[in-house]
Predict the 3D structure of the following.
Amino acid sequence: MAEARVDSRTAVDSKSSWAVKGAGVPSFEAEFRVRGSDVAPDLTLRFDSVARFLQDVATDDLAASSFGSTDPYWIVRRTIIDVLEPITWPGTVSLERWCSGLSTRWANMRVRIVEIPEVNAFNPAPRRAGVIETESFWINVNVSGFPARISDEGFRHLSAGAPETRLRWKSMNPGAPAAHLGTEAIQEREHVIRATDFDPFGHVNNSAYWAVVEDELSDHLDIRTGPHRAVIEYLKPVTPNSRIMVRRIRVGDRLSLWLLVNGTVVTTVVVTKC
């Protein structure tokens, strides 16, 4: 366990356009270890590992809240991950989670992740504290998976200090490749789903989609050489026996991906070098 803590606001404010959490806004905090199974060969934290951290802290936050029994089911529609300074192995990450905006059926949840890096035989050199900013658009659903109104207690808790209480959905990613790019610029491959990719609801787990992103970025390592942003939008669930086709295109410092099942776009991803 690290002996000193990093002031995450100091670490982030000079590098990021993210708004600082206001005074009095309730938040949930947790710590996780970064392990060898969480990182890429260059020892930096993978996107799928970030997604697992976000799921775990959300589960813990809900369990500790006053409305975990009235609003137990939430699904993610979008996640934004800004890697400002890479998180590396070994180390300990501190996560702070709070609501940055909501409406009656959904909420934007911010999670700031700050690492206290450590050293070992594999990574002996001193390193700067890793910093990742994220925001996820969560939809409250009923047991059948349909959007449901947030309970009065849930709304009271989430809206405390939130600057936006009439949040609306607006897509950030293109739904399809731009027509002027031409089909010759777009590549396509199949992504094989594994049995371990599915969650208890029988859908591909949120973090499993990021394996596709990691596969594609292996051919575009320059995007990760400095600060970069990834935005994933989940449009439709993917069930067992589905065949996923991945379409991709690189234009400048931007890599765009579309995941399709039977010709229908189910997920979109844009990774941009900042």
The beta strands are 28-34, 74-85, 91-102, 106-117, 131-140, 187-191, 228-234, 244-251, 254-261, 264-273. Confidence is low (pLDDT under 50) at residues 1-15. Residues 121 and 263 are 48 Å apart (CA to CA). The radius of gyration is 19 Å.
